[in-house]
Structure formats: C-alpha cells, structure tokens
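Schema walk-through. Below, the input block comes first and the output block second. Nothing else is stored per chain. Lengths vary across the set, and this one has 198 residues.
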Amino acid sequence: MNIPGLDYNTQREKLKLPEYGREIQNMVDYCVTIPDRKARQRCAESIIAIMDNMTAANRQNVDHKRKLWDHLAIMADFKLDIDYPFDVQQARQFVEKPAPMKYPMTKIPVRHYGKMMFELFDKLKTMEPGKERDELVGFAANQMKRDLVMWSHGSSDDEKVADDLARYTDGKIQLDLSKFKFERINVREVKENKKKKK
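--- output ---
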C-alpha cells in the first residue's frame, strides 16, 4: 500500500540515538546545514535546552550537561561546526564498534573433562611427589568422577578414573585404588545441577 505522505519508521533513516526521537534528529540535521556560524550556535544551544527538558530527571548527575553535548555531536555525526563547551572527541568511542574478540579454540582430547582439568594434568606431570601433589591428585580424581557422572560418558567407575588419570599425565600419576577413597557423589544432585545450568 503506497499512500502519499504516509511512511513508516521502517522506511525512514535509522535514528542514531532513538531515545531523543525523530524530531530532535531532524532539528540536528537542520542545524548542521545552517550556513551562519552564530545562528548555528544558537540553534545548537536551543536543541540542548530541549534535550535537557526531556531528560530533566538526570539533572542532578554531575556530567549531565557534558552528556547532552556528547549526544548532540553523535547525532550530528561530528559534522556540527560550533563552539562546544566540552571536548566531545571522547564521545567517538561510544559510536565506534569494538574489534571482535577471538574465541579460544583449544583442542582437548575429551571434552567432558574440560580445558581446566587438562591444565591440571599438565601441572601434575611436573610436580614432585609429596603432600601437595597428593592433595591435587585427590582433587583431580574426585572432579573427574563428578564429570563422568554429570556427562554420562561411558563408565564412571573408579577404574575408569584411575586409567584416565594415568593416561593424561603420561603415566606419572598412578592412583592406588586400594588406598584412595573417592568422595561420595549424589548422582541425582549432580544431574539436577546439570539441568539447572542448561
């Protein structure tokens, strides 16, 4: 349906700061085109006064006026040649898109143990035998068993944990199942926690 004089927001140019509305944006666009600098300055100050009335609840904020002038500069694409009472160059950082972050794509042999467990395995390979290593082995073994229960990857029995621990530490850690006692794991609670995380 094409009716003269009737258009939709979807057909219009996208607003730079939608919170001020299209009328303020139109005023700013007009202000940029005013050839006389003094008239342009007066126009900009009038727009700021209107924006100030629109955001009256924020007047108690220390940097309220600065924000208004920053917003004016953003709406004008920094093309408004006037005497700004504040340095508006810092407002550019708000409109510049940050560079995309790289997603760490680390390969790990088995995903159910996770990256941190493999970092722990690497640490265990280099540690000297002693109380600290024994405590870390106990922590690792119990966490591995919890991971196996949570992700239901095959068997979660003690032998599987001992075999995996030996394999991923290049045989440096041999868990003696006749002496080592695993923490009691509430299977139902572990699986309910997994559901909550989803």
